[in-house]
Amino acid sequence: MKLSLFISFFFILIALSQITTASSWSRKLYDKFHFLFKNKFRFRSKPESNGKLCALLVAGSNGWYNYRHQADVAHAYHVLKSHGVHENDIIVMMFDDIANSKSNPFPGKLYNNPNGNDVYEGIKINYKGRSVSPDNFVAVLKGDKTKVHGGNGRVIDCGENDRVFIYFTDHGGVGLIAFPEGILSTKQLNDALDYMHENKKYGELVFYLEACESGSMFEGVLKDNKKIYAITAANGHESSWGTYCDNKWNLPCLGDLFSTNWMEDSDKEELTTETLETQFEIVRKETNLSHVIQFGDLSIAKEPVANFQGEPSSQHRRHKWKIGTVRNIDNVEDSEDDDDNDDDSDDVQKVSWPSRDIKLNHLKLQLDRTNSKLKASELAAEIEDIKDERREIKKVFFDLVSELADTKEEAVEIVNKRTAVLRVHCHHKLVHLFNLHCVNFSRHDYALKYTHILNNLCTYYGEEELILLKEVKAYCDKLDN
Ligand SMILES: *[C@@H]1O[C@H](CO)[C@@H](O)[C@H](O)[C@H]1NC(C)=O
Ligand SMILES: *[C@@H]1O[C@H](CO)[C@@H](O)[C@H](O)[C@H]1NC(C)=O
């Protein structure tokens, strides 16, 4: 009896120990599979690279002082083409008023780097002038030919096994990007991306976005389950920067800082081995005046840049695109050594200015440099006009807030607070209403600086969106434009 009790106790012990070993075994097995599983995604055999690549490049501005946006897009076109992307797979939207502008000392040419090639050469533009519109941009994204007005009607024609690359550069504000005429809200952009996802218009999509406060276009809105990976030039609360602003030709800034950083990287790296994540890290480090941020499905960033900027073999390169020798600016020792050998004209210093101050700073620089009294007084008058315009714009926003806020403390908060776009629908309605009835953002891009106030008003009014819209409309109607 005692013995059988002892034996059964013994067996229970064994059984217990089996269970614990089994569970540690299963844990190990799980870890092993989990590891393999994770790595399958980390080093995935890129099934999408069998599909094709569709690219959309957009410069959302016009006007001489916005030279850089069209130079950026023209450069991006050559980055893709020189990596083997066929011109039929690239859609370009740019107003095209810069290369042949009367102000251009190099008619028919655009430069994105003081030592670079003419980037305008050979570019095929699909949407020019007024056809560079928010509606056409959305129609092109959705692949909806019936909604396109003007341009040559081309839309993104990709499917669920394909990759889409979008690069957009222009002015922006909190939760919106601008076009030569009109604006696009974060709601409109993300609705279009959702539509593309639901209707299998891509397998994976990569979006590079240069604009002030560009992070606000995706922050809290772009989910990580849409197979979209986005990089923005700035976070949601800061300016992005133009660069090559003090150049030997006295041209307005030739490029944007984030944009030239990614393109100069793509020009010199082997894109079949460099991953998007590496490019992001390099560009983030070099873009040291704003915060470059990534959003969405970060697993896509493990893929080679070539999947989105060129065919996966550099053997396919038709010609070697040489943008010019760019001094390795992150290696200070080297550049000091080089100084003796370098001719001044080869010195590519990235002098960068906040996007919204470019025209003003450019005029101030011309004023410093001119010897002509007449020219100086013209420049001084132009500078005064800009300052007056700024004062007026600021007053429109501040008066609006003091009219709508209940207390002084609330007014101060609405003017200063910085948040993501929390009420996406209200924000969308309000920025469009404001653009239509208060200040035309396309004509006064400086007003974009205060769009966080509109965003804050939506948060402040909460559910009372309709009341807010009515009150802002009434306020705007009182202004004499
Ligand atoms: C940013 O980087 C550039 C080039 O490396 C350097 O000249 C500049 O001083 C840096 N600016 C800041 C604010 O760190
Ligand atoms: C805003 O300005 C642009 C550019 O001058 C113009 O084409 C557009 O019609 C204006 N929009 C409104 C609503 O006045």
TrEMBL record:
Superkingdom: Eukaryota
CDD domains in UniProt: legumain_C
EC number(s) reported in the record: 3.4.22.34
Catalysed reactions, as listed in the record: Hydrolysis of proteins and small molecule substrates at -Asn-|-Xaa- bonds
Signal sequence interval, chain numbering: 1-22
Region (Disordered): 331-350
Keywords from the UniProt entry: Coiled coil, Hydrolase, Protease, Signal, Thiol protease
Legumain prodomain domain ranges (all copies): 382-465
Matches recorded under InterPro entries: Legum_prodom, Legumain_prodom_sf, Peptidase_C13
GO terms under biological process: proteolysis involved in protein catabolic process; vacuolar protein processing
Gene3D superfamilies, per database record: 1.10.132.130, 3.40.50.1460
Active-site annotation: H171, C212
Annotated coiled-coil segments of the chain: 360-396
GO annotations of cellular component type: vacuole
Regions of compositional bias (Acidic residues) in chain numbering: 331-346
Gene Ontology molecular function: cysteine-type endopeptidase activity
Family (UniProt): Belongs to the peptidase C13 family.
Protein name: legumain
Species for this entry: Diploscapter pachys
Classification of source organism: Eukaryota, Metazoa, Ecdysozoa, Nematoda, Chromadorea
